[in-house]
Every structure is written in C-alpha cells, then in structure tokens.
Write a structure and sequence with these properties.
By secondary structure, the chain is α/β, with parallel strands linked by helices. It has a single domain, classed as Rossmann fold (3-Layer(aba) Sandwich), CATH 3.40.50. Helices cover 49% and strands 13% of the residues. The strands form two sheets. Strands 2-5-1-6-7 form a five-stranded parallel beta sheet, sandwiched between helices. The chain has a two-stranded antiparallel ribbon with strand order 3-4.
C-alpha cells in the first residue's frame, strides 16, 4: 500500500508549507502545482497544462495542452472545463499508482477516493491568515483580506463543482487541523502521528 496524503487548505493557512514538511519528514515526493505540471509533462502533456496555480475553471486551447499532438478524444480546437479536469485526474491517478505522495489541492482527495488515502484539510482563523499574508506578501490589511477571500471562494467553487462535495467541511476529511495552534512543523508532526495511528501512513 502506498502512502498517499491529500491536503486541502484555506488560503494563507500554510497548507503548502505543511505538506512539504510532511513529505520531507516521511521522505516521499511532494506534489504542488509545479510538480503536478512536471508529472503532466512526463505523461505527454504540455508543462503549461496547470500553469495557472489557481484552482479555477476556465477555457484553454487544446494546442497548448499537448507537447506532441496527443489529442485523444478531442474533436475541436478548444476543450472545456470538464475535459481539463479529466486530464488532471489522469495525471493525479498516475502519481498515486507510481508510489508514495503528498498532493496539495486539485481535488486529489476526490480523484483518489477509491484508494486508502489520508485526507486532510488545513485551516486557520482569518485574522491569523491575514497577518501571515501581510508578513509574507507585504500586503496591506485590506488587500490581504480581499485576496484571502477571493482565493478561498475560487477554491471552494472549483472543489464543490467537480466533487459535488463541500470544500473544507469536516465530514469530507479524516482530519481537519488549525495550523495556527502548532505551526508548520508541529502540524506536520501531528498529521503524521494521526495518519500512522489510522493505519494510513506506513
């Protein structure tokens, strides 16, 4: 059984940093948007397939998807959101079949729902997230709040549309964690300990 950990996260909660820390502690691959893009390229798709790091629905030219004319089931010059999600799903399933992985976002928990994976959602209070965005991005308080709300809304819309689920709702995950309590390293350790006790991390 491979160790597969999927992480959903609210914007500014540090979910990406925590996912990277988990992968490092376990010595397994970490897949964020950039690494998923590389995996897509290795599968024959263009490296620009997931170039937009926001999880959102949009329309793309098919010619920008493929590195070597891999058109498959396409019969027009453009593809829609559902076809793009199908490509993304194929890439993520290939990642999970090859070995252990920590996968950030991209509805990976839903795509891999038939596998024994650990599903985690990382959140934090809004004031904490705003403070982190001010500190890390150099934003003003009102700018940080607007960005946080926009990103959260985008992620929620994307997730709910493709999974028919409820982004961030505890019932859809094995574990929901407030990252402001233990910080990046402490939260990573907590998730690993939980996963091992649950029998989902080797």
């Amino acid at each position: 059984m491979h160790t597969i950990i999927t992480i959903g996260r609210s914007f500014g909660s540090g979910g990406g940093h925590i996912g990277h820390a988990i992968a490092k502690k376990l010595g397994i691959p970490f897949y964020d948007n950039e690494r998923i893009s590389k995996a897509a390229e290795e599968s024959g798709y263009s490296k620009n397939l997931f170039a937009d790091n926001e999880e959102k629905r949009s329309l793309f030219s098919v010619s920008s998807f493929f590195a070597s004319g891999r058109l498959g089931y396409f019969d027009s010059g453009y593809t829609n959101d559902n076809v793009l999600f199908g490509i993304q799903s194929e890439v993520i399933r290939n990642i999970a079949e090859k070995g252990d992985a920590v996968i950030i976002g991209r509805c990976a928990d839903y795509i891999l729902r038939d596998k024994p994976i650990l599903k985690v959602f990382i959140d934090a209070p809004e004031d904490y997230r705003i403070a982190k965005l001010i500190e890390n991005e150099g934003l003003k308080a009102d700018e940080a709040e607007k960005l946080m709300r926009r990103k959260d809304r985008t992620r929620e819309t994307y997730y709910n549309y493709y999974t028919f689920g409820a982004w961030g709702h505890a019932a859809g995950y094995h574990l929901c964690v407030d990252s402001s309590v233990l910080g990046v390293e402490g939260t990573a350790d907590f998730i690993i300990d939980f996963g091992r006790k649950a029998g989902l991390i080797r």
